[in-house]
Backbone:
């Protein structure tokens, strides 16, 4: 059974590759209350057989996609990022659900997203595009505020028409709610057009593209890479686990660092993500929790703190956290400085050598930039 890969990125829509579908672009100044724009990215992967390479691309390129919004601004306000994850088309899943499972609801915990991607296993199954789109529409808490970014990316190589839920009704429902559907066919342009992939994009004002699911990942080595990866690991020393989630969160952070290091360039992209405002861990890190005013230090019990901080007064504990926060900012500033140097270096190399345009990150990046501009959001 050929397998299909589906990505729903709630929050970014636009032109993918060279094949344009919907051309609508309604720029928005954002909601009248002036609140920061929300970017919702829901990733839906078909975990049936034969497209393991595409799942690998998703694992390796998660941090590259996240980094498109690292410096996203509108009217001086930084965008807020939420990510959700689904799998579908796998015989291990429930037939009653249409072979669809919500792995994660919208979350700001990017380490959980990476952890979930690496935990996915493939198996044969039926790939129902309309069913998984409908599930994402019904089960996720989509924003309804004007100016927030919402979109669906669905990619695969099986006919778009399969399953009990008609794709036309599903994508029209998405369009009615301001969620753009973009389709990515893993095969030839002609086959994708003949099996409904292009029509699915057109009906929801999205775009249709094709990618090479088997293309090897491309990373341009830069002089800054080793130091960026090292600083990304060093950042971990500034995190203070606390409460019921503390140990698990700290362990998850370290495991996802190791996972990223297994893909060329991914550790560098992860370090840059960890230096951004998107990488927040207030559920388990006391530094973030204190910064976001989600915890009262005077009410913490000793057994909720790491051993080295037990016995401190609330005042002394606050000073210890402020010192950790100061060191974290120093490291993040250095990462961002090196990243700017790296971007200049990579841009120079790319001018001499054309980068492939038929990979997952390339088409998603094109869409992110196009639709962010439509919503008045400026990227780096």
Residues:
């Amino acid at each position: 059974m050929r397998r299909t890969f589906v990505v729903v990125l709630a929050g970014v829509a636009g032109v993918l590759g060279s094949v344009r579908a919907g051309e609508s672009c309604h720029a928005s100044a954002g909601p009248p209350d002036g609140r920061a724009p929300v970017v919702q990215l829901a990733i839906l992967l078909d975990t049936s057989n034969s497209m393991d390479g595409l799942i690998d691309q998703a694992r390796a390129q998660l941090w590259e996609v996240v980094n498109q919004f690292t410096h996203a601004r509108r009217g001086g306000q930084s965008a807020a990022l939420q990510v959700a994850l689904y799998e579908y088309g796998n015989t291990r899943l429930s037939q009653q659900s249409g072979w669809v499972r919500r792995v994660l609801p919208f979350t700001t915990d990017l380490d959980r997203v990476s952890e979930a991607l690496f935990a996915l296993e493939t198996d044969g199954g039926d790939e129902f595009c309309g069913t998984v789109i409908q599930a994402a529409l019904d089960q996720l808490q989509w924003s309804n505020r004007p100016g927030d970014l919402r979109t669906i990316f669905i990619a695969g190589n099986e006919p778009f028409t399969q399953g009990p839920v008609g794709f036309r009704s599903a994508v029209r429902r998405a369009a009615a709610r301001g969620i753009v559907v973009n389709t990515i066919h893993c095969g030839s342009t002609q086959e994708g057009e003949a099996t409904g992939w292009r029509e699915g994009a057109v009906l929801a004002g999205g775009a249709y593209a094709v990618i090479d699911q088997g293309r090897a990942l491309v990373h341009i080595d830069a002089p800054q890479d080793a130091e960026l990866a090292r600083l990304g690991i060093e950042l971990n020393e500034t995190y203070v686990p606390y409460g019921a989630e503390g140990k698990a969160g700290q362990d998850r952070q370290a495991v996802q660092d190791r996972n990223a290091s297994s893909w060329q360039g991914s550790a560098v992209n992860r370090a840059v993500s960890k230096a951004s405002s998107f990488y927040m861990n207030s559920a388990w890190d006391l530094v973030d929790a204190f910064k976001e005013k989600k915890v009262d230090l005077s009410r913490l019990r000793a057994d909720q703190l790491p051993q080295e901080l037990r016995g401190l007064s609330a005042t002394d504990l606050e000073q210890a956290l402020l010192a950790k926060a100061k060191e974290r900012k120093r490291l993040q500033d250095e990462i961002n400085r090196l990243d700017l140097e790296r971007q200049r270096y990579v841009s120079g190399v790319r001018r001499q050598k054309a980068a492939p345009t038929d990979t997952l990150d390339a088409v998603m990046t094109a869409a992110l930039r196009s639709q962010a501009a439509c919503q008045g959001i400026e990227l780096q």
Summary: Confidence is low (pLDDT under 50) at residues 1-23. The first helix runs from residue 52 to 66. DSSP finds twelve helices and nine strands in the chain.
